[in-house]
Amino acid sequence: MNLDWRTYAFGSAAFAALTAIFGKVGVTELNSNLATFIRTLVILAVGALLVTARGEWQRPDTLSSKGVTFLILSGVATGLSWLCYYRALQLAPASRVAPIDKLSVVLVVIFAVAFLGEQLTWRVGIGAGLVAAGALLMAL
Q: Which partner from 9, 64, 102, 105 sits 20 to 30 angstroms from 96, CA to CA?
């Protein structure tokens, strides 16, 4: 199936929303670090099943060392993000935690311009500003 990138991006947003709701319920009964570990195991299993079902495994010697290095860094950042997110969910309502988490959109714009050389258009700049304003308005 060849879907447009926007379909996947919307799917990401929808699943991220469910992550907040399910995670908030889950961390009410478990330590946030253990909850993150359990979530990680589930993601590992789902990922392995998907790669297996699609026949996408590759031999390690065929993988890009740069790609693997940056995916490892991405994994570390994801893990730290999840640990912080679940702890925040234990301490505050999901409706206040999630908007602050979505400030990542603004940070992605800043980092993409600074480190990836992406162009900052007026639309992206205004949109990022509105996201920041909305997140702060909802969270404070």
A: 9
Residues 64-85: pLDDT tens digits? 999 999 999 999 999 999 999 9
Q: What is the dihedral of CA 61, 67, 73, 75, to 10 degrees?
A: -80
Angle between helices 5-26 and 32-53 (to 10 degrees): 140
What are the angstrom distances between the C-alpha of 122 and each of 114, 126, 127, 138?
16, 6, 8, 24
Whether the model pTM is above 0.90: no
- Each residue of 58-85: b (16+ CB within 10 Å) or e? eeeeeeeeeeeeeeeeeeeeeeeebeeb
